[in-house]
Amino acid sequence: MHAVEIRALARRFGSLEALAGVDLELAEGEILGLLGPNGAGKSTLVRALMGRVRPDAGEIRLFGRPADEPGARDVLGYVPQEIALYPVLSASENLRAFGRFQGLAGEALERAVAAGLAFANLADRAGDPVEAFSGGMKRRLNLAVGILHQPRVVLLDEPTVGIDPQSRERIFAMIEELAGRGVSILYTTHYLEEAERLCDRVAVIDHGKVIASGTRDQLVRATVGNGKRILVRAVRPIPPAAVAQLPGAVVDGERLHLTSDEPAVTIPQLLSALERAGVAVADLELVSPGLESVFLQLTGRELRE
User: Fold this and answer.
1) Which domains does the chain have, with CATH numbers?
2) Which run of H or of E encompasses 183?
3) Mean per-residue pLDDT for 50-61?
4) Model confidence pLDDT, tens digit, residues 89-119
5) Distances in whole angstroms, Cα of residue 160 to Cα of each of 125, 143, 155, 202, 287
6) By three-state DSSP, how is residue 230 classified?
7) Please, what is the Cα angle at 35 between 29 and 40, to 5 degrees?
8) CA distances (Å), 3 to each of 77, 99, 176, 192, 231, in order?
9) Half-sphere exposure of 288 toward its Cβ, with a 13 Å CA cutoff?
10) pTM here?
11) Using alpha carbons only, how large is the chain's radius of gyration in Å?
């Protein structure tokens, strides 16, 4: 059984088709990265999952139950991109307030507050007002607030925006801890390196449709192949005729690039050709294809566009 199953989900805002028949599954205990350019439909999809947007057509199921059934969405936790905290309240007061919003009370609430402070590594700052916190501390508390009620599925919307590398590592550790508990996570991000590090699978959404999904390696093989890019910078412009015998070599002044399935064979051939032409190499780089190459191939755009 899937934690989340979405079938043919559609939503139009006037002339704008925000969702155009989205099909998507999130397995139990999986971290699924949701990637897409701005305006691709990510936010509308997340809002539909949370029940804040009513689809025009299609179906959402949570652990086999229609999402609109009473209580079905109780399994969801949501951590928005915006910091959703009360700045004048302390960390513990924020956790206690949001815990009550989530239906917790009494000893269960106090246990959740203590667990939330420990999860966010903020127990020593429990009584301090949030307005005095750093951006990373606020992000950690924001995440802790969203999972106080121990949801089985967590929707994370850009959880590392605007924080330093050390705080980002702590957020990663929190996400990995959730996954280790068996929580299913839908992770939207503009940082491809985060998706490569954290996500079991990735779904690419564009123009309101999921246009590809799979593991990183599956997507690479299906789009750009397993060939590696060879990047060369020479000390002077490279004569195109010097590398004419190397298929796919593209010359741009003193720079050259080509893709090869056998770089151990191609690189010596390339260096020999440049040496015969009297062109010295200043730098050579071998690059394995990743999600950035996949994304560009599928959408024709940078992720931030």
Assistant:
1) 2-221 (3.40.50.300), 227-288 (3.30.70.2470)
2) none
3) 96
4) 999 999 999 999 999 999 999 999 999 999 9
5) 21, 10, 13, 18, 26
6) strand
7) 130
8) 13, 23, 18, 24, 43
9) 7
10) 0.82
11) 24
